[in-house]
Sequence to fold (205 residues):
Amino acid sequence: MTTYETVLQSLEQLGWAVSDGLAPAGLAPRLYDECRALWEAGRFRPAEVGRGPRQARQDAIRGDAIHWLEPDSAGPASREFLVWITQLRTMLNQAFFMGLNTEEFHFARYPAGAGYTRHLDQHQGATARKVSVTLYLSPDWPVDGGGELRLYEEKAVSGPVATVLPTQGRMVLFLSDQVPHDVQPGTQPRWSLTGWLRTAAGLPL
Ligand code: OGA
Ligand code: MN
Fold:
């Protein structure tokens, strides 16, 4: 099976997939350089939780800072990523008839000691986000560096079904409305590119 086929099969059977070979070779280090430059230029903002009037910064829930990619102003590596993710979205539509038609992505930086408590990526009453995608960017992440993403079964009270070290170039995909997950605090800053493949907002589902 190709890497794509393995990922599609895992998504179909488990609702999630982890792959070190899916993202284009060599892209993660270039994305890392771009996001470091944006960070150093002061282009990150503290991430918030919730939406509408209840949207707010809550350090106890989520400790990262983010920078949203905008196609017009994105650097060369970010633009390459957006082109590639559009192709991946098309393949997912062909495989699963998911009707995904947009994407939104942000760089994220978790300082040492910060994580994100267990949550689902679909906000209440907003079902546009269908597939969550994260590409890890930190080079040389140590095996004892923490920062793991942990995935859980939908209603499970048991432990995680997957624990993913944020190794550079590793990609995780999962169904946004079905896979609760959390981010463990790490021992050093943790950089990633995270986003969502979406259906048209406002369409009846
Ligand atoms: C998120 C998230 C996971 C990760 O941003 O919603 O869950 O591993 N990120 O960074
Ligand atoms: Mn999440």
